[in-house]
């Protein structure tokens, strides 16, 4: 006989043999953590190779072991500090945490498509006029209307939508 989903506490277990009239009794203590094991993603990257995935856990029985299963289901990484970098595959990742008594929590998340841009610089002169150009080619399978660009800047006011820049100099910022 198996008793499942018992909350923590003291239990008196008695077993009686109905044929012979023998019985056995035992008191047992079932422990449970103060809080159930919980997986807490602290930093969930949106794009591959952008930043580290940082996760934490709470509750359960401490001494957490984190496991990350990549979308190819062949790459599995473990961590005791909950930090994973090098997330370089497209698709759904599975994240697990296990505590010292083997309790398990699991969640999944998806990373967006890896973007492989082609940069095509060209340099030319027309007399004494420099006519440099940098063109960004976005793969055909991506919607090119959803992108913004900047050169040498992370200031949002410097971003723009055209994919060709002309007459660039070393001082060019936008």
From TrEMBL:
Protein name: Uncharacterized protein
